[in-house]
Design brief:
Serine Threonine Protein Phosphatase 5, Tetratricopeptide repeat; elongated; mainly alpha; 73% helix; binds zinc ion; 3 strands; 387 residues; 3-stranded antiparallel beta sheet
Length: 387
């Protein structure tokens, strides 16, 4: 409660000054009329009785609208402390005042909208932010909040509209987020089995952001479903150019395409070149599998052993141990079994995905970070030693 006190002390002093100034100008309000209210309000705050304090401050507002700033600050503080009901009460009371200036009213609407958002009352918040837009006040903040609401409500069409308006206003491009909104709409179309619509939307996603891996992966899978394997392969290979960190997401489908085309030699050549460019563990595992198929378990174990010297990844070790167990020629079987179980457990408990914006970790791929709400910031982890 001390922070509230510090906030209000200067106001109390200022209020005395304003009142004194007014009384000197022969107005009716005097120091003695106004300051006691503040001090009893402060007293209630000090005694941890915020509701009584709010009553006092609201009563003072009836007398004089010079205290609007204080009410805004007080409401803001309550919201930040998580006392949303109190913040709402203060801001609603402010808005009900007919004497507010246009600026003050807009400021109070913005604050109340944020209270409603924090309370999860999105409908009410939405109408306040729309009202601000119509008033042409605090447009960017209002749009930013509307975008948060529409994302929460998964209203992707409205997200697209608002993001475009925000982009025009602020000059900051929202291309990446817009591509994801199109992807969300495309996923909905795919769920309805409307693959034509889904493809149209994914095209828009790629036009919005040429580096949208998600759109490429989705379109690739749609092409595969439709039997257009070569198209799918051409698309999926673009993930390497878009963002090689997502290669592990594309590789299973790429390998499946080559297998469907029955082109094993081409797959080997492709993986070898890919491996030279990006010695990622997912690529190494795919290589090891090909080697195992053509030359047997021991050759695959040798390949993985070489790889692990320079790239000590858990996934590689787990695969190598299980191949060693399978080949069965070793007399240290017991020890290998234990090692493999330990590695398996470590892999199970490990978050395979990491947000590059906020450090949030996840076991599955989220295209929007649940923590910081960034789009496309969660990527497959490459290092096993990060926690
Ligand atoms: Zn994040």
């Amino acid at each position: 409660m001390m922070e509230l006190l510090w906030l209000l002390l200067p106001v109390a002093a200022a209020s005395g000054w304003v009142a004194a100034k007014r009384s000197s100008a022969n107005r009716t309000v005097t120091v003695t009329d106004r300051t006691p209210g503040y001090f009893s309000g402060l007293n209630y705050l000090l005694n941890e009785q915020p509701d009584k304090a709010i009553d006092v401050f609201i009563k003072m507002l009836e007398v004089d609208s010079e205290t609007v700033e204080t009410h805004l600050a007080l409401g803001n503080l309550f919201r930040r402390r998580g006392e949303v009901d109190r913040a709402i009460r203060i801001h609603q009371n402010l808005i009900a005042r007919p004497t507010l200036s246009r600026d003050q009213r807009a400021q109070a609407l913005l604050e109340l909208g944020q209270d409603y958002m924090k309370a999860g009352l999105f409908d009410r918040a939405e109408s306040l932010f729309s009202e601000l837009g119509e008033m042409n006040m605090f447009q960017s903040q209002a749009l930013e909040n509307l975008l948060t609401i529409y994302q929460q409500e998964k209203d992707w069409d409205k997200c697209l509209q608002v993001a475009r308006r925000l982009g025009q206003r602020t000059g900051v491009s929202r291309r990446r987020a817009c591509a994801h909104y199109y992807c969300e709409l495309a996923e909905e179309a795919r769920t309805r089995k409307d693959l034509v619509k889904a493809s149209q939307l994914l095209k828009k996603a790629r036009l919005s952001d040429d580096e949208c891996v998600r759109a490429t992966l989705l379109q690739g899978r749609i092409e595969m479903l439709g039997g257009a394997t070569k198209n799918a392969l051409r698309l999926l290979k673009q993930v390497e150019r878009q963002d090689p960190e997502y290669l592990s997401e594309a590789l299973p489908s790429i390998i499946e395409c080559y297998r469907l085309l029955g082109d094993r030699e081409e797959l080997t050549r492709y993986l070898e070149k890919l491996y030279q460019r990006h010695p990622l563990v997912s690529v190494a595992l795919a290589m090891a599998e090909l080697i195992r198929e053509s030359d047997g378990d021991e050759a695959a174990v040798r390949f993985l052993g070489d790889y692990l010297h320079s790239h000590p990844y858990l996934e590689g070790l787990e695969r190598m141990l299980s191949l060693m167990l399978q080949s069965g020629s070793t007399d240290s079987r017991e020890s290998l079994t234990i090692q493999q179980r330990i590695v398996e457990k470590m892999l199970e408990s490990r978050a395979a995905y990491l947000c590059s914006s906020c450090g949030f970790t996840a076991k599955t791929l989220h295209w929007q970070c649940p923590s910081c709400k960034s789009w496309g910031s969660i990527k497959p982890r490459q290092e096993f030693d990060e926690t």
